[in-house]
Design goal:
The chain has 8 helices and 11 strands. The protein is of the alpha/beta class and about 230 residues long. It has one domain: NAD(P)-binding Rossmann-like Domain (Rossmann fold, 3-Layer(aba) Sandwich), CATH 3.40.50. The strands form 4 sheets. A 5-stranded parallel sheet has the order 1-2-3-4-9, with helices on both faces.
């Protein structure tokens, strides 16, 4: 069963007719969200889903944003942590997956969406030199998550589905400029802060899947991201 209609729900559509697994992809996805009614909506949906499906594996997507000093105290992150605790306490069988920022086009204005749109249009923007990000492709999120779902030894735990390597925001801008062959209309500021280390608790799975988070990972996947977005705009 898949609950939701967004990017993650579509990626996990193979579970739509699975009677043993619930992919809960209908939670609050906008990291800028502040409306309590949206947080309450997610909680009520989790409560009803767990109540109606007590024996199914409940897969919940959380966030790695709590490792970002600038985001750790936001209403969104606090809500996600509350949902994690609720599921750990009330779900009979669960997986909590903290996902880093996904390299995919979404309705929410993510950093990669913002950079692509701004550089393509020539719009001016600011770059915080001291900030970094952790990005992972949707395909790799799906692969790692599938492995965790399919092996029962991983159930009833929390895992981090993230890249083992970070990238600074200036480096991201440079990659976009190189791929697009266009100079960004940006101004660099001596602001921002780096993520704290994200726990690497899926290392064995990543090795088994032959996922290589090497120095070319960001360039290659950003190039794919840009090409896919150009095709969708045509």
């Amino acid at each position: 069963m898949v609950i939701g209609r967004g990017m993650l729900a579509n990626a996990f559509k193979a579970y739509q007719d699975n009677d043993e697994v619930i992919i809960f992809a209908s939670g609050v996805s906008n990291s800028q969200e502040k409306e309590m009614k949206e947080f309450d909506r997610e909680l009520k949906l989790i409560q009803s889903t767990l109540s109606q499906n007590p024996d199914k594996l409940f897969v919940y997507f959380s966030t790695c944003s709590m490792y970002d000093p600038l985001s750790s105290e936001t209403p969104y992150v606090k809500h996600k942590l509350n949902m994690e605790r609720y599921i750990e306490k009330h779900a009979k069988n669960y997986l909590i997956l903290r996902i880093s920022q996904i390299l995919g086009r979404s309705k929410n204005q993510t950093l990669v969406n913002f950079l692509l749109d701004s550089i393509m249009t020539g719009e001016a923007f600011e770059v915080w030199k001291n900030s970094n990000r952790n990005l992972i492709s949707l395909e790799d999120v799906l692969q790692i998550s599938n492995s965790l779902i399919e092996n029962k030894k991983y159930h009833n735990n929390l895992y981090h589905v993230a890249n083992s390597a970070f990238i600074t925001v200036p480096e991201l801008v440079n990659i976009f400029e190189e791929i697009l062959h266009k100079k960004a209309n940006c101004h660099y500021l001596d602001k921002g802060s780096a993520y704290r280390e994200i726990p690497e608790d899926t290392t064995l799975i990543i090795e088994e899947l032959n996922i290589d988070f090497d120095k070319t990972y960001y360039y290659d996947h950003l190039q794919n991201f840009i090409e896919e977005n150009k095709e969708s705009d045509e």
